[in-house]
Design a protein that fits this description.
heterodimer; A: alpha+beta; B: alpha+beta; globular; cytoplasm (chain B); LAMTOR5 (chain B); Late endosomal/lysosomal adaptor and MAPK and MTOR activator 5 (chain B); lysosome (chain B)
Chain lengths: ~100, ~90
């Protein structure tokens, strides 16, 4: 099933993984990047262990890793992990 | 950041800040205030280090872990990693 990552604004690349880290689909800057996928899996598994609230069932909905000009946005849905590399444009400071 | 400064951060009651945690590069908890617990210091340090290794030529990134129950912002600066817990809007 093709995931329409080209509809995500400023998308630079994507990875779709199974829950155990196998690459299902990839494209753009992240095409065939299995080693990067393994690094993401480590981050995701650690993030799943951090309690975000008193409820133990509260797992993260979105994980963002943001540099100056680009970011990775990660989410989990229907037993698949979706990673999108996107351009990051910092919001302008309020103009007087 | 000293524990005094972490106390001040919470005392100012900046809107939405529920906790603060500070760790060193080994995961040792240097201070935890509010909803942040010492037990998570290792995970926070690990995430910061792993994210920085994605692009070792760039400065360490900001990591945001978001859920319905709140979010955590994590940033590594030198040997210190900070985590800020934000309550949901």
């Amino acid at each position: 099933m093709a995931v329409p990552f080209d509809r995500i604004p400023d998308s630079l690349g994507y990875l779709v993984l199974t829950e155990d880290g196998a690459v299902v689909n990839s494209g753009g800057d992240l095409e065939n990047k299995e080693d990067v996928a393994n690094q993401f899996m480590n981050i995701i598994q650690t993030a799943l262990r951090i309690p975000l609230s008193s409820s133990k069932k509260d797992k993260f909905k979105k994980l963002s890793i943001v540099w100056d000009n680009f970011m990775y946005v990660i989410t989990i849905s229907a037993h698949k992990i979706y990673i999108c590399k996107r351009r990051f444009i910092p919001p302008d400071a309020a103009m007087a | 950041m000293s524990t005094k400064e972490m106390d001040a951060l919470l005392r100012f009651r900046l809107p939405g800040i529920a906790g603060v945690i500070c760790t060193d590069e080994h995961g040792l908890c240097l201070g935890a205030k509010g909803v942040a617990t010492r037990e998570t210091s290792g995970h926070i340090a690990n995430i910061a280090e792993s994210a920085a290794r994605l692009n070792p030529n760039l400065p360490p990134p900001v990591i945001a872990i978001e859920s319905e129950g709140g979010s955590i912002l994590i940033k590594k600066e030198g040997t210190i990693t900070m985590g800020i817990y934000k309550s949901p809007n």
